[in-house]
Amino acid sequence: MIIVLRQGTPEKEIEKIKNKMESLGCQIHESKGENYHLFGLVGDTTNIDPEQLQANRYVEKLIRVQEPYKMANRLFHPEDTLISVENEKIGGGNFTVIAGPCSVESEEQITSIAKEIKLAGANFLRGGAFKPRTSPYSFQGLLGEGIELLKIAKEKTGLPIVTELMSPGMVEKFVDDVDIIQIGARNMHNYDLLKEVGRIDKPILLKRGMAATIEEFLMAAEYIMAEGNENVILCERGIRTFENFTRNTLDISAIPVIKKYSHLPVIVDPSHAAGLWWLVEPLAKAAMAVGADGLMIEVHNDPANAKSDGQQSIKPARFNSLMNSLKEMAILQDKVM
Amino acid sequence: MIIVLRQGTPEKEIEKIKNKMESLGCQIHESKGENYHLFGLVGDTTNIDPEQLQANRYVEKLIRVQEPYKMANRLFHPEDTLISVENEKIGGGNFTVIAGPCSVESEEQITSIAKEIKLAGANFLRGGAFKPRTSPYSFQGLLGEGIELLKIAKEKTGLPIVTELMSPGMVEKFVDDVDIIQIGARNMHNYDLLKEVGRIDKPILLKRGMAATIEEFLMAAEYIMAEGNENVILCERGIRTFENFTRNTLDISAIPVIKKYSHLPVIVDPSHAAGLWWLVEPLAKAAMAVGADGLMIEVHNDPANAKSDGQQSIKPARFNSLMNSLKEMAILQDKVM
Amino acid sequence: MIIVLRQGTPEKEIEKIKNKMESLGCQIHESKGENYHLFGLVGDTTNIDPEQLQANRYVEKLIRVQEPYKMANRLFHPEDTLISVENEKIGGGNFTVIAGPCSVESEEQITSIAKEIKLAGANFLRGGAFKPRTSPYSFQGLLGEGIELLKIAKEKTGLPIVTELMSPGMVEKFVDDVDIIQIGARNMHNYDLLKEVGRIDKPILLKRGMAATIEEFLMAAEYIMAEGNENVILCERGIRTFENFTRNTLDISAIPVIKKYSHLPVIVDPSHAAGLWWLVEPLAKAAMAVGADGLMIEVHNDPANAKSDGQQSIKPARFNSLMNSLKEMAILQDKVM
Amino acid sequence: MIIVLRQGTPEKEIEKIKNKMESLGCQIHESKGENYHLFGLVGDTTNIDPEQLQANRYVEKLIRVQEPYKMANRLFHPEDTLISVENEKIGGGNFTVIAGPCSVESEEQITSIAKEIKLAGANFLRGGAFKPRTSPYSFQGLLGEGIELLKIAKEKTGLPIVTELMSPGMVEKFVDDVDIIQIGARNMHNYDLLKEVGRIDKPILLKRGMAATIEEFLMAAEYIMAEGNENVILCERGIRTFENFTRNTLDISAIPVIKKYSHLPVIVDPSHAAGLWWLVEPLAKAAMAVGADGLMIEVHNDPANAKSDGQQSIKPARFNSLMNSLKEMAILQDKVM
């Protein structure tokens, strides 16, 4: 950490800061130019709260040299994290596809979609039971019944299931019934929920908040990991920008950036990123090409009558042909699919 | 609601959509030009799920004529909402000032700040007990003990207290001890928490999410109101943009926009918007000038040693002089302060 | 075009608007519900200025059914535009690679880079002679001399050249010496310059402005085409968002969106989008996978001593290996490369 | 300037960087911790190109201690710049109001508006003759004739005139006929135009680009000043964000930030920021309260028939009442109006 002092800081204040840093166990290297005066801190700086330092009116700037995340940091964990769920593996050289409808609507719907995506080669079944909706008047999901229907679909196809948890009070039920617990974009900053799922040992699929920086995204993963659960899968699903032709702007660059700085697997959700079904296929291919570890795709047998997100869902036949294209690309990209 | 159909939509599909709309209780006015074909829906359109309609591949566009919020809508509630807390009033022609430290740190700290802001004319004491922090390694607040210290400060000064709730599990304690319950920006999309505080009758101070549109902000208020709690105070605290000189970009225009479309009181938090103490004063004045119903300001007796947000906190003396300026402006703005 | 009137618009005002629209040659279909009153306009609406209509205080909303661009619109020109420059073709099923340094620095530099990229299979040589720089104190390019050096490099390698034009006064020189004239992101809204290059017949490489929507980008192309020059190549180079790990956020979705709505070729500049050399390769592959018509890549033999943009330039050896990967992918994507 | 080196940088590379910096006339203070290695540069660092340094793969970060602008920097010019135009003064303790229609449409229109705003107390008349429009098919202004009509309006009212210049080729005419030359938001990055107006001695009203940071805005002013013209007035007119209820998001915080870092006068354009006439009044007051040096407001006698921007124009009567409110506020704000 480097502290840049304001020009003309009184000697007395300089001493105060020095003493404080030394009392926190850091050595100080002072460096003084015509236009600046700075301290380079040597030693363990983890006890220093950067915000508190910046509140000092004599501190002009504070420069972090290291990333603020530790457990999610590739620096301290150079190998890719590999997450195993039943017979499936996520991360490493694998390319994992999670597919299914936005919402679970009926036993017939979820089992028939599950069968079709299974045939096409999907690895996991997704389906929302508890739905975070912008309007309190929109369909909020089948709730507990939705989970039961997912379990039936799993029984019939063998596909492990992924579904979203919104409330700390439901954690136990999800641990029992769900294979991967999803934390949605709207709850990426819900730290109480993150801590809660940090205390269990189910894999967590964490979606990037719609205005979260890459660093904040990794800090949210850190919240989960710091409580003991290291099985975190990150999911890029688009960020909010001024461009509103698409529902969100898929931040494709985030994939290689995260893979460089973290060892966690990263997948892409082209359906939510685009919000338009005809963009799912090209974006899914781009995700494969850029080095993602997998995809989460909304598939619906009857999008026009879907209870949610029909506009961004593709039909099983299109999903099947997309899977075939991806399998061809996987060879060039050295991915197991 | 207006449905614009894609050019060349087959007659059969047109009939299907017509029948569906009629079955939902709407009459249809058809309008056809060379380049478009549209249905204007007459009657109660609240049973129509816009997302489902848009999923129909023959629907080009869907145009809402009415706002999606009802209880928060000024159209159905033309009078300003006035919220009473002990002897204080929020909304209507009042200008309410909530002040205090970011975090409650000790009895001495919170009571001394409370006394000073009381003298300067503040109406409420704020202070964080449960703190949402980007890093799991940062100070997370004094938790329950923080609430106890706030109660002591209230006892000594008479100032009712405002503090943030992060977890549905804590609602009961907050109902007992707190005068206004704050829902932070990071939880504006945490619908389970919104529903929870919708079922109580304490006033809720709802902060705008950092990437929430004005409409989504009002929909979050609607979540609370739809459960029965109509005492919602909205708080603009800056949105995230490409400009990062300031921590956030204060969306000053949001105040008159919200006041036009909603009857709820709207206050401004210049401290979080700017992230820099020397911007608090000019932004607070701008908030008064633009028509806000009040302010929430971070005040700390020793910002350089504050446990959080010291960089954006002003000292009691500066707060006092700001209050004097605001009182002068209040006369021109026809506000009671 | 659909006009939504404000509730309670006086009959007199309704008549005025009706008469005005009819005088402009449009028929009106009126549609009236409980909550709305609207006019659907039938006939040629191109004489109607939407801004003027919206200024009418009785007009609540105005809904455009058609895109505002005509010549760039695929609706009126379903076939892909194919642009020929010497022996090279851009658009259609071709995948075109433009490569070279950010700035032309010396004869030795530009010719040696040109030779290396030629060997690797690049189709065009790029190099800045006139450089738009944020600071007036930064290197502004070799100006006219830079153009001369590009011509020498072209002579030695046969690669046609692409370079940026900043001033209307230089158009004639560029027409004589340059094969494709680039309009940079900073000048995408410089309408006088767009009109100027609309009057010549050289192909124009138009970069997207850093905060331009896809529609505004196509309208900038329309400015050029409306003057008579239909040889426009669009270039997505990242947009400005809150995420600043990368210099810009590559809007990868813009490629399939533009290709659906326009017949013009679209290429991607991963170097400017990312601002970091190690992101160029994955982003270039993503561009191929998403369906782009080509790439523009910064290549420098000595990035650490480049006069500009060294941080985002790759070396010739890496460019060569990237080209090999792209050629493999091109087969799957049905692109000629 | 501070250079942070990557961990494990070879000694040879360290020496290379050291030697280069010393050859550019800087002394180096080295500082080495467990996790970092840095150089603090002492002496004149203006010869160092930061981009070039960052291109060195061994440089982890580069930290500027000083702002990159010099002539616009308050550090080197602590007094407010005061600009005189005929009898009017801009900057210092003055509050200057520029008003008029978006476009000059006819002699009758411009002179009648000029008379009304003059009566209400405006200091300058604005009116567009050359209009930058998103669509090539929209009204582009009366061009040269518009300038002539502005001159007539000036003759009749004595109000000096402000109008936008779009092309370097028109500079001479503008120098002869116009009192303050406006550079629009779309041309803030048009460096050739900035240099051109830097060589004349007319005051320049420079609008912030819609996605320009505050620093880039000041660098655009620096382009003008570096050529010799120090009479620059800055104008905040809103930035582009995800919020699109308003045309742009007025960055009200930018005013006090710019006034702290620069000595140039800063005014606010609430009309373009909001895009909605009913927001002009509250935003104008907020601009006064936050410390702006003036306003630029669109006033039209018949907004519903304005050729451009009618939606954001206010009528003369409303302008008059706004001026009265501002005059009252000016007393509290210590502004001469």
Automatic annotation (TrEMBL), chains A, B, C, D:
Domain of life where this protein originates: Bacteria
A Pfam family of this chain: DAHP_synth_1
InterPro entries named in the record: Aldolase_TIM (IPR013785), Class-I_DAHP_synthase (IPR052899), DAHP1/KDSA (IPR006218), DAHP_snth_FXD (IPR041071), DAHP_syn_2 (IPR006268)
Keyword Manganese: no
Keyword flag Transferase: yes
GO BP term, pick one: aromatic amino acid family biosynthetic process
Span of domain DAHP synthetase I/KDSA: 85-329
Record's keyword terms, sorted: Transferase
Residue ranges annotated for the DAHP synthase ferredoxin-like domain, each copy included: 1-67
GO molecular function: aldehyde-lyase activity; transferase activity
Alphabetical list of NCBIfam families matching this protein: DAHP_synth_Bsub (TIGR01361), PRK08673.1 (NF006421), PRK12595.1 (NF009239)
Name of the protein this chain belongs to: 3-deoxy-7-phosphoheptulonate synthase
Species this chain originates from: Vulcanibacillus modesticaldus
